[in-house]
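User: Can you help me understand a structure? I only have the sequence.
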Amino acid sequence: MRRGTVRRIGKVENRRLIKGVVCGVRVEDIEDPLMREIRYLDKLVDELARGKAMDKILRK
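Assistant: Let's start by predicting it. Here is the structure, written out as tokens:
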């Protein structure tokens, strides 16, 4: 992943559409805003590592 990717994901509004389970916890159910943002990035990295396209992850 390029350095700019992590910076850009913080600016992408579609990141809230990322759904699923990270470390046994559903991303959309996390109440703490900081922890939710961390899990969005964690989920993004996991999906990219599996070879999924960024547009598909962010549901564009």
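Now, to help you interpret it: The chain has a mean pLDDT of 78. The helical segments are 3-9, 33-49, 54-57. Let me know which part you'd like to focus on.
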